Amino acid sequence: MSESPQTLTVVIPLSVKPRGGRKAMVTPGVLALERRQDITLIKAVARAFRWRRMLESGRFATINELAASENINSSYVSRVLRLTLLAPDIVEAILDGRQPEGMTLHGMIRGMPVRWTEPMHRPQAG
After folding, report:
1. pTM of the model
2. What is the pLDDT of residues 20-61, one digit of tens each?
3. In 3D, which of 42, 4, 38 has the Cα closest to residue 24?
4. In whole angstroms, what is the distance from residue 124 CA to residue 104 CA?
5. Can you spell out the DSSP letters for 75-120?
């Protein structure tokens, strides 16, 4: 039996991808099944629901009051509050890290597309 040390070299291909405002190392195949939790987006969703509760409870009468207490621009607060209008399954997907590739906070608060499947008001039959 040989007592000489042996060297084992393991090569793991890595790539660096932006995730939630940070860069993460991703290995092909292995991490493909891992959740893509975007911590920045998750925090914004949580903050939006917290802010909505504060407004609904009467703790703050206006978005401007809320923004002043948080030392944040009221325009930003308004845009983040829109996240509370997302469908529950989308919020759940974000929290679970199952949101669509490319869904980021920046993209979400820049403007959410509105798509109606049917008109809001139908002419009434006379």
Report:
1. 0.62
2. 666 766 666 544 445 578 899 999 999 999 999 999 999 999
3. 38
4. 41
5. HHHHHHHGGGGS-HHHHHHHHHT-PPTT--HHHHHH------SS-S
